[in-house]
Structures are given as structure tokens and as C-alpha cells.
Amino acid sequence: MPFINEFSYKVALHCWRALLTLRKRGSDSIKKTDWKLIRDIFFSFLKIGPVTFGGGYAMIPLIEREVVWKKRWITVKEVTEIFAIAQSVPGAIAINSAIFVGYRLAGFKGAVAAMFGVLLPTFWIVILLSVLYLYVQDNHYIEAAFVGIRAAVVAIIAYAAYKVGLTSIYDKTTWLVAITSVIVLYVLQVHPVFMIVGGILTGLIAVYIKKYLGIVTRLEKESEQID
Amino acid sequence: MLLLELFTTFLMIGFVSFGGGYAMIPVIESEVTVHGWMTTQQFTDVIAIAGMSPGPIATNCAIFVGFHTAGLPGAIISTVGMVLPSILIILIIAKFFFQFHENKYVKFAFYGLRPIITGLIAYSAIEFAISNDVIGELSWYTFSLVAIFGLSLFAVTKTKMHPILIILLSGVCGTILYS
Predict the structure, then answer these.
(1) How many CA within 13 A on the CB side of residue B73?
(2) N or C: which end of chain B has fewer CB within 10 A?
(3) pLDDT recorded at residue A8
């Protein structure tokens, strides 16, 4: 999809400019940079990274323990709010949370420090494992092992779908949307990006249509209603 | 301009990866295969390794794909592309709308977005099953893969076994059965 790439290149330029202006504004409000705090943020998140196996969600309790209970940087209420936002914007939840906490504590520099703290150790571990994999992938036994592993990965992805489905699919509309999306993907091979944009539009339109028809929509699984 | 291509691709993925973790896998998979950087089967191995590594799975996938495609610079560029949207969006929200997730329209959007993400992950499970012969012609080989799939699914749902352990055990099964 070359046009998407061209588009995202332009988006990248805009991002960079926006980041620069944000940074300028940030440095106005925080006059002097507390480098000790920034170093502290970096090392706190650095410690969390390499011990959290099992994806971003595994990091959540550790981040909370570190920033709320050990460092006493922010309150439980704030960190819960941060996790909620981190989940509702694009990107990995652990990285989003780290950026948010870092920004809260020390502005733009804090955000960058926290992000690198989370990323650096795992980056090198993944590189190490990749090198290892590229070395051994042609080995007879490893090749056989990966045939089995691939079947297990399919199961893990199927389970991920089931788990996401538990909180996403709970009424007729959400069932319809989910099943239609699988059929559309299978038959038309639509690019996932269009599906995601389509999902956002479907949500907005569906709520208004149901409102027009006088049907109450539950926006989340736990009985939160709008009329 | 392989590096630029990696950067813009993962930048785009970073912007649309709602839901984190496994929800990003269908998007990354489609981009990686469209660009011809990897086959779906190779990408399955990437997911296995990303799942065995500490840290967020989607970022780990980006690092591996970047490394596989263009070495260390590729890995760095892909990671930067992936996290740049995160940092930008979080900074904007932290500065201007802290009540973002309480917003009415955001909630409306998620009402449609969540089931679509479920559909995307479910479809990618089917796609991965086909390219890795879990869904295939009737043979002993297919049957054995279905058995590993079934046992893994049972282990992850019923016994709550850790995915890393499941990956390792299925690797042992693979070595015994297919070498």
C-alpha cells in the first residue's frame, strides 16, 4: 500500500513539528530540569522492563507498585486513570503508561526517560533472541520444534480473540459487527487499517441509529447506559 | 529506502494499534506480508519469540521484524516508528484532555471498535491456522497439529498455564513428532 506510506510519511513530519512545539511549551512551565528525578524515572522503568514476561498487561501491577507504593510519585487513583487512558489510545499499554507517568512527573524529558527505560532492556533481549533464532532456525530439531510451536501460537492468538471478545461482545449489535468483520476480512481481504477506521465509524453511527430507534445502548459490558 | 519504508510502515501501525498486544498482530502481519519482508509462517515464529521475550508483544514484533529486514538499524527505526505515535498522542492527551476516555464520542467509537478488533484477532487466528497447516488436508500431520493446537488451547484457557511454558512444551512436542 504505497499511498498509505506516503501518507504516514507526511504524518511523521507533522508529528515531529507538533512534538517540537509541545516540547517548547513544556520547557516554559518547568523552568529548571531536575536531572536527578529524570534519572530516577529512567531507572525505575528500566527495572520493570526485563522481568515482565507475558506482554504489556503483565507490567501494569509492577508499574503501580513502583510509582505508587515504592516511589510515592503519584496516587493509586491517578495511576488507575492513567492505565484507563493508556488502554484507550493506540500503542502498547505498558509504553503508553510509562510515557504518561513520566510526563506527569517531569514533563517531556520525563516522558522520554520513562519510555527509554521500558524499551531499552527488552530491545536488547529481543535482538539477542532474534540473533539466536536466525542462527539455529535451520537446525533439524529446532525446525521440528517450531512446527509444533506454530500450532501453539495459533491457539494463543485464538485465546487472545476470546479474551478480547469477552469484554467487547455482549449485545446483538456487537455480535453482528464482530461476525460481519470476520466475513468482510475473509471475502474482501480488506486492509486492517480500514477495518479499524470502519470500526470507529460503525460505533458512532450505531449508537445514533439505536438512539433514533429508541433502543438503549450499553457502551460497556458493565451496565453503563446512555439514553 | 528500506529503512524509510520500515519507519513509515511501523509509524502507521503505531497510529492504528488500538487495543495493544495481540490486537496489533493482524495489522503487522498484513503489512509484513504485503511488503514481502516475511511469510505468514515466518511471522508466526516472530510472534512465538516476541511472546517469549519480556515486554510488550507488539513492540517486540516490531523489533524482530526490523532486525530481520534491515539489521540493527532496521530494528531501531521500526521501534522508533512504533512508539512515536504513542508519545505524541499521550503528550497531547496529558496536556489537553485528561478526560479523554470519559468522552462520550470516544465511548461511542469504542462500542464499534472493540468488536472489530475481536474480529481482526479471530480472523488472524484463522489465517495463521491455514498458513501453518492447522487447517489443511486430512492427514496424520494435520491431525497432530490440530492436537497440539487443541492441547495448547485447553492449557491456556482451563489450566491458565503461562504462554511461555505452552510455547516451550509445544516445541518439545514438535521435536519429538517431526524430527
Answers:
(1) 6
(2) N
(3) 67
Residue of A146, A207, A219 to mutate, interface with B, max B Cβ within 10 Å: A146
3-state secondary structure of A220: strand
Asked if A177 and B115 come within 8 Å (Cβ–Cβ), the reply is yes
Eight-state DSSP code of residue A56: G
A96 touches chain B (CB under 8 A): yes
Q: Per-residue DSSP letters for A92-121?
A: -HHHHHHHHHHHHHHHHHHHHHHHHHHHHH
Contact present, B46 and A146 (Cβ < 8 Å): no
Least confident of A14-18, A207-211, B131-135: A14-18
Kindly state the DSSP code that residue A217 receives in the 8-state scheme: E
- End-to-end, the C-alpha distance of chain A in Å comes to 41
For residue A59, list chain B residues with Cβ-Cβ distance below 8 A. Answer: 55-56
ipTM of the complex: 0.86
DSSP assignment of B26-52, as one string? Answer: HHHHHHHHHTTS--HHHHHHHHHHHHH
Domain segments of chain B: what residues?
2-106
Which runs of consecutive H residues, i.e. helices, occur in B35-103? 40-52, 57-95
For residue A23, the model assigns a pLDDT of 62
Mean pLDDT of chain A: 83
